[in-house]
Amino acid sequence: MRAARTPKTILDKIFDAHAVDEEGGRTLLYVDRVIAADTALSAFNTLRNSHRPVRQPAQAIQIPDHFTPSSGPTLEHAGNMELRTLIRDTDAAARSLGIPVVGLGDPRRGIQHVVAVEQAYAQPGIVIAATDSHTPTQGAVGALALSVSTDLAHVLATQCVWIKRPQPMRINLDGRLAANVTAKDVALAIVARIGSAGAAGFAVEYAGSFVRNLSISGRMTLCNMSPEMGARTGIVAPDDVTIEYVRGRPFAPADEHWDAALEFWRTLRSDRDATYTRDVILDVSTIEPMVTWGNNAEDAVPITGVVPDPAGQISPERRSRMAKALDYMGLAPSTRMTDVAIDQVFIGSCANSTIDDLRDAARLMKGQRVVVPTLVVPGSGMVRAQAEAEALDVVFLSAGATWGEAGCSMCNAMNGDVVAPGARCASTSNRNHMGRQGPGSRTHLVSPPTAALAAITGRLADVRQFQGS
Q1: Which segments of the chain have a pLDDT < 50?
Q2: Which pLDDT tens digit goes with each residue over 325-361?
Q3: N or C, where is the chain less crowded by C-beta within 10 Å?
């Protein structure tokens, strides 16, 4: 008698195909590809000092992005000698270990997650490991993308990583968005609903009609924000949108390998009767433009809303955290979000720096003038080149914004791009922690259209009411 088939999620299928061993409730997973950044020098030094080679250097890549400058294309544009030395030494260490480097001077340079997706270094069904917490961004193309933090040296030396299998969670998104409401608004609405720890211990699969009709850049935004709800990773099952995106890209399979890959990718959809530990259902047609008021992505409300009052919270811990956040942000309860003035604007980061994101921002800025300092930074050199081919840079520059070189830039303030102390920034990045964009900085997370509108009005405003010039 044939054994009963166990229905599997896409997570199960990729996880089981890569499992090497199990011990103590953890699984040793084979890693197909490893990404290192300019934060990897200590891991490289660990390998060199212990005389351990990189097991598969051709399956690793170095993409400096955290410390790289947005002010110019060369190392000399880095903010100071310390940063220049760090970037140079990290790239040199990677090359000494046989790891290819996509660095300054390379037309592909940029944020590791954006580069990995657009080059098809990330692709369906593979396991990718990198130290950056937003590595799950690459789940947009059906990869199991894991942040490995301090385990990078171990992964490079063994091509494997120990991991506790995450519980499966599905977020079903159906409906159609209102005009100028984007995937970023959806992501913020999800985090606000389930909380910053609502997906802790889970791998989130994004599904539903909205996701099936969403571009890869929109899927990147959803997966990118998964860690903000505590998720181990985020993923979208590959479909025709994925296949057409990956086809012909530099690292994509070619010739007969393409046909074999395609056959495999078609099997990666979660089985119809697969079960999930948690299911979340959301109609995206009800979502308004979202904006954060505090120091956590869950501190988000619709643009038509107000700053909440800590006094209305039952939990003493929640009241205390909210009061601390409001004090830091300089906001009073019941303040309308549309009454909040903005001092700076940042459009970029791994959450929102694709060509689609820049088009969304440019559409709002065309024919307008910014009234606060505004920095626009593409996610990669390829995105930058495409934007310039479409004259989006002309739109930004004509509006008075600064057009930067690709990299993390003002998202993490590790590269010279910072928000001034006490200044309030409308940012398309993914984190609004205290000091995230610079000491004393106050960050409001928003979508590219909302950020663009803030740049030309000097305040948080409802992008649905924008009439243009």
Answers
A1: 1, 469
A2: 999 999 999 999 999 999 999 999 999 999 999 999 9
A3: N
CATH code for 167-286?
3.40.1060.10
Amino acid identity, position 393 = D
Q: Taking a C-beta distance cutoff of 8 angstroms, is the pair 73, 104 a contact?
A: yes
Rounded to whole angstroms, the Cα distance separating 144 from 189 reads 24
- CB 119, CB 248: distance < 8 Å: no
Alpha helix locations (H) across 19-169?
41-49, 81-96, 112-118, 152-158
Q: CATH code for 292-464? A: 3.30.499.10
**3-state DSSP percent of the chain in helix, strand and coil, to 5:** 40, 15, 45
Q: Burial level of 68, CB count in 10 A (0-12/13-18/19+)? A: buried
* Size of the chain, expressed as the number of residues it contains: 469
Beta bridge pairs of residue 34: 60, 129
Asked if 104 and 75 touch (Cβ cutoff 8 Å), the reply is: yes
The enclosing H or E element of 322 equals helix 316-329
How much is the pLDDT for 1? 42
pLDDT digits 0-9 by tens, 64-98: 999 999 988 888 888 788 889 999 999 999 999 99
Q: Whole-angstrom Cα distance, residue 446 to residue 184? A: 7
- Tell me which residue of 375, 417, 418, 413 sits closest to 393, measured CA to CA: 375
CATH number for 10-163: choose from 3.30.499.10, 3.40.50.150, 3.30.413.10, 3.30.470.20: 3.30.499.10
Q: Are strands 202-207 and 233-235 parallel, antiparallel or unpaired?
A: parallel
Encoded tokens for 103: 């660095």
Q: Please, what is the Cα angle at 161 between 158 and 166, to 5 degrees?
A: 165
End-to-end Cα spacing for the chain: 71
Rg of the Cα atoms in the chain: 22
- Contact 34/129 with Cβ under 8 angstroms? yes
Distance set, CA 19 to CA 31, 183, 234, 340 (Å): 10, 33, 19, 50
